[in-house]
C-alpha cells in the first residue's frame, strides 16, 4: 500500500507528542535558499510541510542535475539519498520543513509507543516507494533520444489521469536538468511533438494525444 505521509495512520494528538519527544524543529526557507547541502553527511530526516524544493547536484563542469522534485509530505535525508555527498536541497518556493534527528526514529522507543512503530513502518514504505521512483527515472534517462525521454516522462505523469493530461511539476529549465538534456534542444523537440500530433500544450499543462 502506498504511503503519502510519514505520519500516515498517526493521530494529530500523537504527532504533537512525538514531535516533542523527538525534539523536532520546524524551519522556514525563502525561495532559492539552500535547505540542506552535502546531504549524505546530514543525520536528519527532512519532511516538507509546505512549498516545494529540488534535490540537485552539480558535476565537475558545473552542470546541474535534478534528482527529485520535493512537495508537501516528501521526505529527504541521508537514508533516502545514497547518491553521493554533493547533493543539495534547494527551495523552489517559500517553504516550511520539519527536521527530525535520524537516531530518534531508528532507536527503540523506551515507552513502547505504538505511533513510533507506525512511523518506522511508514519510513520503510517510503523508502520502497523512492526506490521505485528512482528506477522509473533511470528508465527515462536510459532512453537514447530527447524525444523518447520526453515521451517516457510524459507517459509516466499522465498514467494516473484518464484524460491523459497533467501539469508539469518543473519549469522547462528544471525539466531539462531533470532529463539531463540541453534546454534549447528539448524545447525544439517539444515543438516537434506538438506539430507531429503527439501532445498538446497550454503553458505547463500537457495532454498526450498519442504515444
Descriptive report:
The chain is of the alpha+beta class. It has 2 domains: 12-141, Jelly Rolls (Sandwich); 146-208, Orthogonal Bundle (Arc Repressor Mutant, subunit A), CATH 1.10.10. It contains 6 helices and 11 strands. The strands form 3 sheets. The protein has a 4-stranded antiparallel beta sheet. Helix 3 runs antiparallel to helix 4. The longest helix has 28 residues, at 114-141. The two termini are 29 Å apart.
What's the layout of helices and strands?
Blueprint: H1 12-21, E1 25-29, E2 34-36, E3 44-50, E4 53-58, E5 64-70, E6 75-77, E7 88-91, E8 95-101, H2 102-106, H3 114-141, H4 146-158, E9 165-167, H5 172-179, H6 183-195, E10 199-202, E11 205-208
Antiparallel strand pairs: 1-8, 2-7, 3-6, 3-8, 4-5, 4-7, 9-11, 10-11
User: Domains counted in the coordinates: how many?
Assistant: 2
Radius of gyration: 19 Å
CA-based shape? elongated
In DSSP terms, counting alpha (H) and pi (I) runs of 4 or more, how many helices? 6
Strand % is 25-35%
Task: Output the CATH class name of the largest domain.
Answer: Mainly Beta
Calculate the mean pLDDT score and round it: 86
**Overall SS class:** alpha+beta
Taking the alpha carbons of the first and last residues, their distance comes to 29 Å
The name of the CATH superfamily of the largest domain reads Jelly Rolls
Amino acid at each position: 500500500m502506498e504511503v503519502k505521509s510519514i505520519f500516515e495512520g498517526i493521530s494529530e494528538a500523537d504527532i504533537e507528542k512525538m514531535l516533542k519527544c523527538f525534539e523536532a524543529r520546524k524551519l522556514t526557507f525563502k525561495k532559492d535558499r539552500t535547505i540542506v547541502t552535502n546531504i549524505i553527511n546530514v543525520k536528519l530526516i527532512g519532511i516538507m510541510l509546505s512549498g516545494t524544493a529540488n534535490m540537485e547536484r552539480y558535476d565537475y563542469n558545473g552542470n546541474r542535475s535534478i534528482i527529485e522534485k520535493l512537495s508537501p509530505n516528501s521526505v529527504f535525508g541521508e537514508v533516502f539519498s545514497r547518491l553521493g555527498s554533493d547533493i543539495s536541497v534547494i527551495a523552489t518556493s517559500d517553504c516550511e520543513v520539519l527536521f527530525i534527528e535520524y537516531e530518534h526514529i531508528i532507536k527503540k522507543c523506551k515507552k513502547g509507543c505504538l505511533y513510533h512503530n507506525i512511523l518506522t513502518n511508514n519510513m520503510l514504505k517510503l523508502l520502497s516507494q523512492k526506490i521505485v521512483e528512482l528506477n522509473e527515472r533511470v528508465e527515462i534517462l536510459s532512453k537514447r533520444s530527447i524525444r523518447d525521454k520526453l515521451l517516457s516522462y510524459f507517459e509516466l505523469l499522465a498514467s494516473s489521469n484518464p484524460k491523459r493530461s497533467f501539469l508539469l511539476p518543473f519549469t522547462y529549465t528544471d525539466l531539462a536538468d531533470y532529463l539531463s538534456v540541453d534546454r534549447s534542444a528539448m524545447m525544439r523537440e517539444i515543438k516537434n511533438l506538438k506539430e507531429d500530433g503527439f501532445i498538446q500544450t497550454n503553458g505547463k499543462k500537457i495532454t498526450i494525444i498519442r504515444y
